[in-house]
Amino acid sequence: MSARCPICGRPAEPRERPFCSRRCRDVDLGRWLSGAYAIPAATPPEDEDDPGADGLDTGRQSA
Ligand SMILES: [Zn+2]
Question: Is the pLDDT of residue 48 over 80?
Answer without folding.
Answer: no
